Amino acid sequence: MPDREIILTPEGYQRLKEEIEYLSSVKRDEVAERIRASRDFGDISENSEYDDAKNEQAMLEADISQKQERLRNAIVMDADAVSTETVGVGTKVTLREAKSDENVEYTIVGSVEADPASHKLSNESPVGMAIMGHKPGDKVKVNVPRGSKTFTVVAIEKA
User: Fold this and answer.
1) Where are the beta strands (DSSP E) in 38-90?
2) E strand map for the chain
3) Quick check: 94 and 103 in contact, CB under 8 A?
4) Which fold has domain 81-158?
5) pTM to 2 decimals?
6) pLDDT tens digits along 110-154
7) What share of the chain is helix, strand, coil (3-state, %, to 5)?
8) What CATH code would you report for 6-76?
9) Rounded to an integer, what distance in angstroms lies between the CA atom of residue 16 and that of residue 20?
């Protein structure tokens, strides 16, 4: 499946394992029960409940398969090997936006763990790609959907 690396933190790897376990046990059982219950509604050839449950089962199995493939191909970061010399996956970086002069902190993670609302930026996102490899004091121009922004890398620490 993957043509690119799937980078996970140890926490992200564990979370993905737990999610697969939940989907493979609890969720699979729930869907199987829906299928059993929908058979009681009569002829399955004209039973929308049955069709919905079978569709849900197919989507669940595809999701489980995709997550298992990610897990098999994941490169789990060694937290001890993360350098704070430059911005990289596994670092927490403080940036100062030039126009607003406000600081913002981001944790740089692999694309699977990205969650911008929690300030977890993918190393493949526009901001993530632009700041990768930079050191404190570096100015970085980032093309964003509404134009461009200039950031200064203020600090780097282990996430």
Assistant:
1) 74-76
2) 6-8, 74-76, 91-97, 103-109, 120-122, 139-144, 147-158
3) yes
4) Chitinase A; domain 3 (3.10.50)
5) 0.73
6) 888 999 899 999 999 999 999 999 999 999 999 888 889 999 999
7) 45, 25, 25
8) 1.10.287.180
9) 6
